Amino acid sequence: MQAARSAGIDNDALSLIARSDIELEGIPDERKDAKTDFLPAAARGAATGGAAGLVAGLVAIAVPPIGLTIAGAGVMALAGALVGTWSSALIGATVPDPVRRQFEDEIQAGRVLVIIDADEPSLQHAEASLRAAGATPLPYEAASAAT
């Protein structure tokens, strides 16, 4: 992690994944990566549910017999976001994290994965520092909050 920090990677862009029996006591909890897809799934559910609720509310406004107001459309969007967050979080809690799924063999072999969530120029700059520190880059490309 120090090699990534010295290459200019922000602390918020770093996390760790390791086997559960490996001691990571010196690492703060916010740096330890979760075992499930709970938070990303909840965020996707909130966005999708909110959009679906908003569309349903706007359609209901367009149909005069329903008599829904603009405030009602907002309430439907909020309800959609809540239902989407709840249902997606439940599903995400049971699905292993995508990085953990892809590199399960590495994790079970006792390796600690340092995950860097940054844009491409930052990753390229950090790669030389990580290699010099003895890290082996593993290929993983996915869209994230940072990219």
Automatic annotation (TrEMBL):
Keyword Transmembrane found: yes
Membrane-spanning ranges: 41-63, 69-93
Tree of life domain: Bacteria
InterPro entries linked: Low_temp-induced_all0457 (IPR052948)
Record's keyword terms, sorted: Membrane, Transmembrane, Transmembrane helix
Protein's name according to its UniProt entry: DUF1269 domain-containing protein
Organism of origin: Xanthomonas arboricola
